[in-house]
C-alpha cells in the first residue's frame, strides 16, 4: 500500500469514527444515565438519513433539509421516549432488549412502507463538491472533510455541555449514581426525556450527514449500532470523552484493518487466500481489540465519573 492510499484510508477511518461518535454519544448517555439498553438507537440514525434526504428533496436545499432534520429527529426521539421507553425504566434488561427489538422491526417496516425498499441517493451539496489537494497527485473529497469538521465541532459543544453546565453535572451524576440523584430531588423523568431526545438528535444528525456518502436504505442503522456498542464498551459506559476517543480508535481499526490486512497476508499467502483471510480477520479486528482492552480495563478506557 502506498503512502497516499494509507493517508486516504486513515482519513476515511477518522471520518467513520466521527460518525460513530455521534451515534455512540447518545447511546452511552442513554445506557449510562438511564440504565436502558436501547437496541433501537440505530433506527434513529436511519430516520435521520431518511428525513434529511426527504426534506432536502422537498426544499431543494441540502442545508435546509439537514437543519430541519434535527428537530424532526428530536421529535421522533421524544415521541419514542413517551410512548415506549418511559415504560421500560423499571423493567429488566431482557424486557428492554425485547421491546427495543420490536421498535426496530416496526420502524424498519414503517420506513419501507413510506419510502420503499430501494436505496435513496442524496447529492453532495454544491458548496462541498470536489476535493482538497493533500499532496501532489492526491485529492480528498471536501465533503468528507466537512463531516470531520462538523463532528469535531459537535464533540466540542457536547463536551462544553457535559463538563461545564448544570445539566452536564446532572448527567455525570446520573451516570455514576442514579438512585442518589433521584433521592436528592432531581426530576429524573425530565432528565431522561432530555437525554433521550439529545441522543436521538445526535444519531439523526449523523444519519443526515452520512446520506450523501452512503445509500439510504431500510436497516442501515443495524451495523452502525453494533459498532456503537463496541465504542461505548471500550470507552466506558456513560463517558462522552471515552466515546469520542474510542470511536476514533474503532473507526481507524475498522477501515485500516480491512484495507491493510489483505496486503499484509500476501507476505505469507498466495493472493487469493490472502484476500480472503485478510477480509475475514479485518472484520474481526475491532472485536479482538475490544477483548484485549477489556482484559486490561474491564470498565473501559475512560469510565464515567461523578459530577
From TrEMBL:
Q: Which domain of life is it from?
A: Bacteria
Gene Ontology MF term list: transmembrane transporter activity
Q: Where in the cell is it found?
A: Cell membrane
What GO biological process terms are annotated to this protein in UniProt?
amino acid transport
Q: What are the transmembrane regions?
A: 16-40, 60-85, 97-122, 142-162, 191-214, 226-256, 277-296
Q: Which residues form a coiled coil?
A: none
State if Membrane is listed as a keyword: yes
- This one is known as Branched-chain amino acid ABC transporter permease
- Its source organism is Roseicella frigidaeris
Q: What is the lineage of its organism?
A: Bacteria, Pseudomonadati, Pseudomonadota, Alphaproteobacteria, Acetobacterales
